[in-house]
Structures are given as structure tokens and as C-alpha cells.
Design a protein that fits this description.
Number of strands: 5
Radius of gyration: 26 Å
Number of helices: 13
CATH class of the largest domain: Mainly Alpha
CATH topology of the largest domain: Cyclin A, domain 1
Helix content: 40-55%
CATH superfamily of the largest domain: Cyclin-like
Strand content: under 5%
Structural class: mainly alpha
Order of helices and strands: HEEEHHHHHHHHHHHHEE
DNA sequence: AAGACGAAAGTGGTTGA
DNA sequence: TCAACAACTTTCGTCTT
């Protein structure tokens, strides 16, 4: 019972959002919500994962459905990718009240003072300044890579955690932001190539890789092994291939995994080669160069994987030349 | 001419002594 | 710390369609 009360090292987990991570203590995934206490507790070892959770439910009671409908709350949802979670007050620069009337001179000087302090207080600590900068970099990077909102929010959460662990010390904000985004994509099974993320940010691939590994080690985040199948959808749509080709590609990848062809191989190259084979099989041929470009590997790698695939899966080249047929 | 193929040399990361 | 190693890249010449 005593164990239930201890919160890990003064750390605060995200409040009011779903934590996608396992328990840092036992790695368990069964998280129990204790709504009366406002706590999130690991069902495996009893560690309190977060306390002071925000009750997002209504604070009023309604006794009829009309009453329930007539009461509501408005406002933007909490967003972790905005440094103050979108909660801060904004004082307009216009000297007008809500209905557009001009303010009296005394009122105006009062608002002027309020505005000044509001701006001063918004970014008050070094941590907030860091967050503000990091979150704008995150937005820039994520929109350049076309990464959807939920993954950005997860990246923001990872960044907030790494700030708590003081990982940014001695590293560039850009590198850590890029690393959190890369990790978030992989956690949500929408992996991007390390190259791709490094290109979009001003961070070298090496730095990015170092930051990423540090992130995993320190935050104890479990990232699923990168699976070539996860790349198929994106590559296929970039190459304008039909869903038939996608399905065939996935089938080929499953079979090649059974043959042990995937061990130690770059998943990007595997996905590329499988797409190449499937595109020929289903008569939607794309060139090795085009596929290699999309997958960010070289044609040589596509060729090598393709050769292995054809050899081990017993796919034969028909006398006609370019058409391939599987032997099941 | 474009695309595919293959050889050779070079690169960065991992492993084991 | 260093050498060996596997996987991958780059480059370039040749063959095929």
C-alpha cells in the first residue's frame, strides 16, 4: 500500500491525455484509472504513474436531458504541442472592449500594464522558453514531413518528458525535437526514415541517431521493431500503386520473413524490393530507380533484396521477360 | 535511350578479443 | 582500443529491351 503512494522521482506524467507508454517499473501495460483519487496506477506492480489528473467531466449536475443539453463548455482542447498547452490568456493589442467600444483613458493604461505583464509572464522560466522554441520547431518539422496531429502530440509529450530528465542540456533543441518526432512516428507504427527526418531538420543523421538512442534509454520507451510492412502504404501511394499491389507486397514480406530473409536487413530496402516484385507481378511496373528514390535506398539495394526474394520465394521469371509468377 | 545488372571500392556501425 | 565483419552506398561499365 505504501508503494501505491510513491510517485516516481518527482516526475509528472502527462495529465489529461492517454499515455501510450508502458509502466517504467515493470513494463506492464494494464493501467488502472482510479477516478476517485485522480490517479493512474499500474495494474502490474502498483506504481502510481500519475496523480493530480484533471477530471474532464462536467462539474455540474443535470436532472433532465433538456438541462443537460442547455449546459455546455466551450474552448479549444488541451494541446501538448503548444508550450503552455494552449491555456494562457491572450490580451488583445486593440484598445477596445469585447463589443468594440473604445476604452476610457484610465482603463486603457490599466490594460496596457496588464498586457505588458501578461507578455512578460507568459514565457517566464528557462524551461518554458525552451519549450516554446521546441514546440515551434516541432510544428515546423512535422508539417514539413506531413505528420498528423496525434503523432505530433506524442512527440510533444516525449519532449516534455525529456525536459524533465534534463536531456536537452548540452544538446541542440532541434536534434532532440527531431528525435522525439522520429520516435513518435515509430511508436505509432508510421515510421519515417532517419534520413528523411534528418534532411527536414538541420540535424545530421548521426546526431539524430544519438539523440534517439538516448531518448529510448532514458525514458525507457518501448519502440516496436521497425517492420517493412509499415512502409508499404506510404511508398505505394507515393508511387501511385493500387491496393492490389500493396496487398501482394505485404504477402511477399510475410513470406520472406518466414524464410528468414528479413533478419539484419534494412526494412526500407526490403519494402522497396517487395514493392518492386509485386508491381511487376501485377503488371503495374515501376522502375527500380523510382522505387529506390521513394524508399531512400539505392537501386543496388533494391536489386540485391529483389534477387534474394526471387530466389528464396521461388518466383520465376516468365519467358516473356518482365513478368513474374509466384509458385505456391 | 532508358532501365537493369553486376563488379569493385568505400563507408559507418557492430561485435568480440 | 582495434580489427574483422556484414550491410549498404557510390560509381561505372555492360547488357537488354
Amino acid at each position: 500500500m505504501e508503494r501505491m503512494r510513491e510517485s516516481k522521482g518527482g516526475e509528472r506524467y502527462n495529465h489529461g491525455t492517454t499515455d501510450p507508454m508502458n509502466c517504467p517499473e515493470c513494463g506492464g501495460v494494464s493501467v488502472v484509472e482510479d477516478t476517485t483519487r485522480g490517479e493512474q496506477v499500474c495494474g502490474g506492480c502498483g506504481l502510481v504513474l500519475s496523480d493530480h489528473r484533471i477530471d474532464t467531466g462536467a462539474e455540474w449536475r443535470a436532472f433532465s436531458s433538456e438541462e443537460s443539453d442547455s449546459r455546455s463548455r466551450v474552448g479549444a482542447p488541451l494541446r501538448l504541442s503548444v508550450h503552455d498547452k494552449g491555456l494562457s490568456t491572450v490580451i488583445d493589442w486593440r484598445d477596445q472592449d469585447i463589443s468594440g467600444r473604445r476604452l476610457s483613458p484610465t482603463r486603457r493604461s490599466e490594460i496596457y500594464r496588464l498586457r505588458k505583464w501578461q507578455i512578460r509572464s507568459r514565457v517566464h522560466s528557462s524551461m518554458d522558453r525552451n519549450l516554446a522554441q521546441a514546440m515551434s520547431e516541432l510544428e515546423r518539422l512535422a508539417s514539413q514531413l506531413g505528420i498528423p496531429r496525434p503523432i505530433r502530440e506524442l512527440a510533444a509529450l516525449l519532449y516534455r518528458k525529456s525536459l524533465l530528465y534534463k536531456l536537452v542540456r548540452g544538446r541542440s533543441i532541434e536534434a532532440l525535437v527531431a528525435a522525439t518526432l522520429y520516435a513518435a512516428c515509430r511508436i505509432r507504427l508510421k515510421p519515417r526514415a532517419l534520413d528523411e527526418v534528418a534532411d527536414a531538420s538541420r540535424v545530421s543523421k548521426k546526431k539524430l541517431g544519438q539523440c534517439y538512442r538516448l531518448l529510448l534509454r532514458t525514458l525507457n520507451v518501448k519502440v516496436p521493431l521497425s517492420n517493412p510492412v509499415d512502409y508499404v502504404g506510404r511508398f505505394a501511394s507515393e508511387l501511385d500503386l493500387s491496393s492490389r499491389v500493396q496487398l501482394r507486397t505485404i504477402e511477399l514480406l510475410h513470406r520472406s520473413r518466414d524464410f528468414g530473409l528479413t533478419i539484419g536487413r534494412d526494412p526500407l530496402g526490403l519494402a522497396a524490393a517487395a514493392i518492386y516484385v509485386a508491381s511487376i507481378m501485377l503488371d503495374e511496373r515501376r522502375t527500380q530507380r523510382a522505387i529506390a528514390q521513394v524508399a531512400r535506398v539505392t537501386e543496388v539495394t533494391v536489386r540485391n533484396r529483389y534477387k534474394e526474394l526471387v530466389l528464396k520465394l521461388g518466383i520465376t521469371t516468365a519467358p516473356g521477360g518482365s513478368s513474374l509468377s509466384g509458385s505456391n
